[in-house]
Amino acid sequence: MAVHSDEFQRMVDRLTDVERSEASQWTSFSVHGRKFGYYWPRTHTAGLKQTVSEQLALVAERPDVFEEQFTSGGFGWVVVHLDRVEADELSELVYEAWRLSAPDELVDALPFTAVAAKRRRRRAAR
What is each CA distance from 37 to 22, 47, 123, 125, in whole angstroms? Predict the structure, then answer.
């Protein structure tokens, strides 16, 4: 069930125009200057942008996996414990965080089905 940090990084790498910014205790991810995610290696957690309704639903459904991080600009950020989440679900959440920040033309050019197909091809190649 656990998602390793390298697998999380590959999920982010499958997305278009991702910019990484390294800080002393975390890495942040942006698309066209808009943040959509964070990774904290010390706690093996990720912070992902979601809609407020999705944030509330995730936390209410599984508080052992998801925590409310903060709300800003009409979005609800959620902390994901990578050692407690399924890879397929995390892949969808990473894509959704990116989609909420990416320009429409990037989203149109990279539907989730394309991201999922890349993931399936990589797994099959192993």
Answer: 12, 5, 24, 28
Mapping DSSP to helix (H, G, I), strand (E, B) and coil, where does residue 105 land? helix
What percent of the residues of the chain are helix, what percent strand, and what percent coil, each to the nearest 5? 45, 30, 25
Cβ proximity of 42 and 8 under 8 Å: no
Question: Distance of CA 64 to CAs 38, 57, 68, 112, Å?
Answer: 19, 13, 11, 26
Confidence of residue 110 (pLDDT cuts 50, 70, 90): confident
Structure tokens at 97: 């965080």
Which amino acid would we find at residue 120? R
Residue with the two structure tokens 């936390």? 59
Spatial separation of the C-alpha atoms in residues 103 and 70, rounded to whole Å: 23
Residue 74 phi, psi (nearest 5): 85, 5
